[in-house]
Design a protein that fits this description.
Elements: H1 2-27, E1 30-36, H2 43-58, E2 67-73, H3 78-90, E3 95-99, H4 101-110, E4 116-121, E5 140-144, H5 150-161, E6 167-172, H6 184-193, E7 197-202, H7 209-217, E8 221-225, H8 229-233, H9 235-245, E9 249-251, H10 254-258, E10 263-267, H11 269-284, E11 300-305, H12 306-311, H13 318-323, E12 326-328
Parallel strand pairs: 1-2, 1-3, 3-4, 4-5, 6-7, 6-8, 8-9, 9-10, 11-12
Antiparallel strand pairs: 10-11
Helix pairs in contact: 2-11, 3-4, 5-6, 7-9
């Protein structure tokens, strides 16, 4: 009798083992590090973060139950990014969400073992984060924001909304990549075909922005605000100066047009952070970043701010309205 009871007990335990193994990923407390490239008071960044938390919750990860979170904000400051990246890696999280190219680069230099899932990165291959999109090959993977061909699209759309434009300045901070070279081939090709002079306009501090925009106002010039953490942090200033000097500008994401910018064309970032949550879930369940392909943007948004169009004295062609994903009135 005892022998039968012992065998029955063993059989029951064996049957339960697969269930216990499957339950472990959601029962074990995990630590996620989140290093944001923007400032804590940035409404757009908060919105993206909320989408990330919601996506994790849908996948069964709840803070305080099976998840701990360490969140840091770098506000686009290069020195602060390096400091926070080291601090984040020293915490030894199970995975890190990295927002922007500079943040991802700083984290990648600090660790080759902790899984890093990035968003808002323009060219992960040129930045050295992976050997290929299909097989990243290291501890870094994620979701690219813009393709190099996007540069030509910005030139074309800005010319359509402001047809008198004969030159364009590319606003960026060299200390907060991605490097301008990623987009220059497509920008130069489009500019040449439209008889436009496109020139780099590097700035290193916010008080240098006004000089760039003021110079454009003296000739029929337009502004391309490049994908750059510095530009995101200073977007309210850039938008206000473009309005003050009457300079048409195109931006790489809709949160600029939501704040009063003229037009924008870029990837849907909230969708990217939701997808990043699914990658972290897969990593927690055993997947390796080296085997998770880097995803290119699946959806681009073309947004027009009709109020700003009127304030700048521009016309809004019907074909441009029809091609827009949204016209903000």
């Amino acid at each position: 009798m005892r022998r039968r009871e012992f065998i029955t007990l063993l059989a029951g335990m064996a049957a339960a083992w697969p269930l216990i193994t499957r339950a472990q990923p959601s029962d074990r407390m995990r630590l996620i590090g989140v290093l944001m490239g923007y400032a804590e008071n940035d409404r757009t960044a908060q919105s993206e973060l909320a989408a990330f938390w919601a996506a994790l919750a849908k996948l069964g990860w709840t803070e305080g139950k099976n998840l701990r979170i360490q969140l840091r904000w770098s506000a686009g400051d290069a020195d602060r990014i390096r400091k926070l990246a080291k601090e984040m890696v020293d915490l030894r999280p199970d995975a890190i969400l990295a927002q922007t190219t500079p943040v991802t680069g700083a984290l990648a230099r600090e660790t080759r073992t902790i899984p890093i899932v990035f968003v808002a990165v323009s060219d992960p291959i040129a930045s050295g984060f992976a050997v290929s999109l299909a097989h990243p090959g290291g501890n870094v993977t994620g979701f690219a924001e813009n393709e190099s061909a996007m540069g030509g699209k910005w030139v074309e759309l800005l010319k359509k909304i402001a047809p008198r434009t004969v030159r364009m300045a590319l606003l960026f901070n060299p200390r907060t990549p991605p490097p301008l070279e990623v987009y220059m081939p497509s920008i130069q090709a489009a500019a040449s075909s439209l008889a436009i002079q496109a020139t780099a306009a590097p700035v290193h501090a916010s008080d240098e922005i006004e000089g760039i925009i003021a110079a454009l106002a003296r000739n029929p010039g337009g502004l391309i605000v490049m994908p750059n953490a510095f530009n995101v942090v200073n977007r309210e200033l850039i938008i206000a100066l473009a309005a003050r000097y009457g300079v048409p500008a195109i931006y790489f994401n809709r949160f600029f047009t939501d704040s009063g910018g003229l037009i924008s064309y870029g990837a849907d970032r909230r969708e990217q952070v939701r997808q990043a949550a699914s990658y972290i879930d897969r990593i927690f369940k055993g997947a390796k970043p080296a085997d998770l392909p880097i995803q290119q943007p699946a959806k681009f948004e073309f947004i027009i701010n009709a109020k700003t169009v009127k304030e700048l004295g521009l016309d809004l062609p019907l074909h441009l309205q029809q091609s827009a994903d949204e016209v903000i009135e």
